[in-house]
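Audit log entry. Action: structure prediction of a protein-small molecule complex. Ligand: magnesium ion. The ligand was supplied as SMILES and no pocket hint was given, so placement is left entirely to the predictor. Protonation state taken as written. Sequence taken verbatim from the request; no trimming, no tag removal. Recorded inputs:
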Amino acid sequence: MTIPDSFHVLLVDDDATFRKALSRALDRRDHRVEAAGAGSEALTLADHEDFDAAILDLKMPGMDGIELMHELRSRHADLPVVILTGHGTIPSAIEAIQAGAYDYLQKPCEVAEVEITLKNAVRQRQLMTENRQLREAIRLGTPYEGIVGESQPIRDVVELIEKTKDSWSPVLIQGESGTGKELVARALHSRSSRASRPFVTVNCAGLKPELLENELFGHIEGAFTGALRSKSGLFEVADQGTLFIDEVADMDLTVQASLLRVVESGVFRPLGSTREKEVRVRIVAAANRDLHQAVLDGKFRQDLLYRLEVVHVLVPPLRDRQDDIPLMVQHYLETSRDAKEKGIALSPDALHLLRHYRWPGNVRELFHVLERAILLCEEKNLSARDLDAVLRPRFRPASPEEPKDPLTLEDSEKQHIRRMLEREGGNVSRVSEILGIDRRTLQRKMKRYGLR
Ligand SMILES: Nc1ncnc2c1ncn2[C@@H]1O[C@H](COP(=O)(O)OP(=O)(O)OP(=O)(O)O)[C@@H](O)[C@H]1O
Ligand SMILES: [Mg+2]
């Protein structure tokens, strides 16, 4: 969270001399002040402009400071109010705070003191607003920056984003393929004070070292044969914003050395140039492989890893947050055009299977499976069978040498039914109730899997 350096302030005091003096002093410090001599005038101003904070004199003829605060608050609930008191009115100032003022200042006051109080008030307001938004998002189940999920691991990820979004320290996002690393990187940017600055992506996979260096740092005219014009590197393009370095595990050791230098000192040299360039960029790197292992294998610089993982976000695999799967499915059905057009709903047994599948390709795979199943499905009701048809061919081992393939949907269903039957002492009605499928369907499945 960043607090701006200049505020838009509403100042209300019936004492014209004091009003002018404080307005001028704040103005000199780059704040914008609108001053009013009475409550009614202040209310009109507040209806037409957005203020960061209000400073109200306590004792005024007509509407006093506390009344005015209530009026202001009824229309602008989040506006922080600072009360000004003269000598000997401290008890009423305390009363004002109990009535919801952020703080009080005693006249005559130093402008520096006013400024600090304002800054704290604005900060508190921001915190309250953010907390409220977060609470509302959680309550309404609105995904946070498109990140669907309410499981603890996802909440931890969101909390970490919120805590670190405004820092310039590098971030390392690790997680299996398709877990949402890029989504997290984008959230870190769009929630930050850099949101209006560029978000630039570079993917290290499959790029030759020279090409990657050229992408990142650019070159000057004539740097190599064919370099007819100078070209800015992505670090320059991303200046003041975020550079998302995807698949960083694939970065060559020589490029890692140049990257380390920018991370440590903020400077780099375009290819062929003798002049250094300085940038301020938040680096967000992502990897779906274990970088500590890569260090042990001599493929990744340890010093770079230490630098990158100042903020370390671990995005959990989907199978570790099964409870999020129904939410993901619901989100998909609500956003997919095909699903909406066909009016698709999932049968309980389909949902059950989706929850218990291993999802080696995580959320991306889940969405693909749903997309294909919905495309092929001829009825409104998507059953486990429809899903099975989409899943099975993809996970049949390609050759006998590759028997380690993840469990098929059928395997997992079979296992689950068997476990349930054991637990319920073979009571078919009871198990069908638990699984949310009818008795006959269960019996058919038992027959197919040779279960009794
Ligand atoms: N928590 C989530 N909520 C909603 N959608 C998600 C979530 N996680 C991932 N997705 C979606 O899954 C897909 C894959 O996500 P993303 O590209 O961020 O994964 P990744 O971790 O970067 O994968 P890879 O390592 O393969 O690059 C995207 O369509 C993304 O929108
Ligand atoms: Mg990705």
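Audit: result stored. Residues 152-314 form a domain with the Rossmann fold fold (CATH 3.40.50.300). The CA atoms of residues 84 and 105 lie 5 Å apart.
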